[in-house]
Design brief:
The chain is α/β, with parallel strands linked by helices and about 425 residues long. Helix content is about 45%, strand content about 10%. The longest helix is centred in the middle third of the chain and has 25 residues, at about 160-185. The protein is globular and about 65 Å long. The two termini are about 30 Å apart. It binds L-rhamnitol (RNT) and zinc ion. Zinc ion binds near residues 192, 233 and 293.
Length: about 425
């Protein structure tokens, strides 16, 4: 591989590609500048199958989500997870963010209930993020807990249960805002609850009314958007909530619109032929900012590793075509326990960045000209031709400039890390 990828070759290829893109009115140098500013939010939970570090935890339980597989070497504590993330980030070009869940609190071996966690339990994450130049995003955790066993949390009809989760959310927003202040970059705190029913409920409205009231109580406490951005994430169904999900798309769209929160769209949370890429322009007509959970559902919300497929490219194209890189927070959400977890991160993050780069390199103005002049054959023809412009020459140049492995070279690196680090974890 060393022979194929050499600096002179990459620079030569880049110069040729630059000339070709220029002939279509695209300046690759400024695209590379823009790419440096693109920051995606990389979810920590791929590193340990959504287990977290709670004392006495049995790993991911309930919540209607599932991590399948038993690949060796998963991170067992904060130090290992940060070590693995550091490895993954070294193979991903650009400066990014890490997305935490409340269960990744580090409590020094002591059990701390979720409604009692606080900022000091995230000190190590913050110090590491500062050291690495990363931002951090956050999520309250409403699953893997006795108080979530009924299948209801913030929408529970049991006041004791819902008050517990309201208190947990208060803690999380406070922590997230503090993280945002510490790191000088707003922390997105995303609320996703698993609440719903396996079979037909009769009181669909009742639970939604309660959820609205719980959320209103939560958001009654105001934070500066400089530090904290609140998001709410909808879902269509989960395992054990097939018939009814309280926090549906319509529910949260209405909520976000009337309460001025961000709306989170997870690519796996809609009907199988429904795509989130087409929702971006509609929502941005009314909503200031969106959070995306870029994921890959296969037949259901299976949370497969993101790859460079049509939908991921369409998402990136929509953000570009709407000129909305400053309004759309691009987060990853998948968990595959059956493959090397660092590979999973790197595959998903590199695929997402490739999609974004491809979108930025698209001579959109020419396609739009064809569309506006009514030449729809030309519009389709250009879209097809632009798919095979020498994007990879620009991608390799980006990786070279960012000092990360070119092409498939990173795979050897992760395999070595598996031998030297992961397989030694017993
Ligand atoms: C679940 C949601 C949610 C979770 C994470 C772990 O269906 O997608 O975002 O995946 O919070
Ligand atoms: Zn999600």
């Amino acid at each position: 591989m060393q022979k194929i990828y050499n600096e002179t070759g990459i620079n030569d290829n880049y110069q040729k590609a630059k000339a070709l893109y220029e002939s279509f009115g695209v300046d690759t140098d400024s695209v590379l500048e823009e790419m440096k500013k693109v920051s995606i939010s990389i979810h920590c939970w791929q590193g340990d199958d959504v287990g977290g570090f709670e004392v006495g935890s049995a790993g991911l339980v309930g919540g209607g989500i599932l991590a399948t597989g038993n690949h060796p070497g998963k991170a067992r504590n904060g130090d290992e997870l940060r070590q693995d993330l550091t490895k993954a980030l070294s193979l991903i070009p650009g400066k990014h963010r890490v997305n935490l869940h409340a269960i990744y609190a580090e409590t020094d071996g002591k059990f701390v209930e979720r409604d009692e966690i606080s900022i000091e339990h995230f000190d190590k994450w913050i110090a590491w993020a500062k050291d690495q130049g990363l931002g951090i995003d956050f999520n309250p955790t409403y699953f893997s807990h006795a108080m979530a066993e009924s299948g209801f949390t913030l929408s529970s009809k049991d006041k004791r249960i819902r008050d517990f989760w309201i208190r947990h959310t208060h803690r999380c927003r406070e922590i997230a805002a503090e993280i945002g202040r510490e790191l000088g970059s707003p922390c997105v705190n995303n609320i996703w609850i698993p609440d719903g029913c396996k079979d037909l409920p009769v009181d669909r409205a009742g639970y939604r009314q309660i959820l609205k009231e719980s959320l209103d109580e939560i958001f009654d406490i105001k934070y500066d958007k400089k530090y904290l951005l609140d998001a709410v994430e909808c879902k269509l169904f989960g395992i054990g909530s097939e018939a009814y999900v309280v926090g549906s798309h319509e529910f949260y769209m209405g909520y976000a619109l009337t309460r001025d929160t961000l709306l989170c769209l997870d690519a796996g949370h809609f009907h199988p032929t429904e795509v989130i890429s087409d929702k971006i322009s509609s929502l941005l007509t009314y909503i200031d900012e969106l959070l995306l959970h870029v994921s890959r559902g296969i037949r259901w919300d299976s949370d497969h590793v993101v790859i460079l497929n049509d939908e991921v490219l369409a998402i990136a194209q929509e953000i570009k075509r709407c000129n909305a890189f400053n309004k759309v927070h691009f987060g990853l959400d998948f968990f595959d326990a059956s493959i090397n977890r660092i590979m999973a991160w790197v595959i998903g993050a590199r695929a997402s960045l490739k999609a974004i780069l491809m979108a930025l390199l698209e001579p959109t103005h020419l396609i739009k000209e064809a569309e506006d002049s009514g030449n729809l054959g030309k519009r389709l023809a250009l879209m097809e031709e632009f798919k095979t412009l020498p994007f990879v020459a620009v991608w390799d140049k980006f990786c070279l400039d960012q000092g990360v492995a070119i092409g498939a070279q990173w795979i050897d690196d992760v395999e070595r890390y598996e031998e030297e680090v992961l397989l030694k974890r017993k």
